[in-house]
Amino acid sequence: VVYEHRSRLERSLQKERGEHKKTKEDFLVYKLEAQEALNKEKQDSMNRYGALSSQHKILKNQHEDVKKQLLDLQLQHNSLKLEHRKTLETHSQKYAQLQQEKDSEVTNLQDTVFKLREESKLLRKAHQEVHSQLLNAQ
């Protein structure tokens, strides 16, 4: 009985050892596959990170370029605004000067016209007198 019991226990132990060995092998295969999957996922993540990092760097550089362009354009705008203001001032002064010259010239011409009319009246009067004297002399 003891011998038979021992024989059954040994067979059971052998069976358990076989199952244990198979389970251990299955676990090692599972562990290896999980490690490979993890490594692949890690590699994919690193690739995505690299791509995003590269894209970030490019966008950052573009941002800096656009910022620089904006500053340049603002400086150019301010310079053009100042130039426009100066030109407007110059034109306003020139316009005022020309207006003043025109007014002065108009006044001078009006004076000249008045004097010429007066002279014309005097000449007509003198002409009339000379004409009257000629008629009287005849």
Automatic annotation (TrEMBL):
Keywords: Coiled coil. Residues 56-108 form a coiled coil. Residues 1-20 are annotated as: Disordered. The keyword Cell cycle does not apply. InterPro entries: GOLIM4. GO terms for cellular component: Golgi membrane. This is GOLI4 protein. It comes from Chloroceryle aenea (American pygmy kingfisher).
